[in-house]
Amino acid sequence: CMHAVESGATSAHMLDGRIPHVLLLELFTDAGIGTMITGDLPAGENP
């Protein structure tokens, strides 16, 4: 994940493959279930 973000991806998600339907839970729930890694924000930009 870190390599993807360092290489230009805007974000990457780490998921626990032992949890049933983890990808759907990450994509289609407000809270999500995994960890999202993002790159640095440009100066003055808020998340």
> Order of strands side by side in the largest beta sheet?
1-2
Number of strands: 2
Structural domain count: 1
Number of helices: 2
What overall geometry do the principal axes of the alpha carbons give? flat
Order of helices and strands: HEHE
Gyration radius (Cα, Å) is: 13 Å
As a percent range, the share of strand residues is 15-25%
Distance between termini? Answer: 19 Å
Spans of 5+ residues with little confidence (pLDDT < 50)?
none
Main sheet summary? 2 strands, antiparallel
Proportion of residues in helical segments? 25-40%
Structural class: alpha+beta
Average pLDDT confidence is 85
Tell me what the structure shows:
This protein is α+β, with helices and mostly antiparallel strands and 47 residues long. The protein has one domain (2-37). It contains two helices and two strands; from the N terminus they run αβαβ. It has helices spanning 2-6, 22-28; strands at 11-14, 35-38. The protein has a two-stranded antiparallel ribbon with strand order 1-2.
What are the defining features of this structure?
47 residues, single chain, 17% strand
In short:
This protein is 26% helix and 17% strand. The protein is of the alpha+beta class and 47 residues long. The protein has one domain.
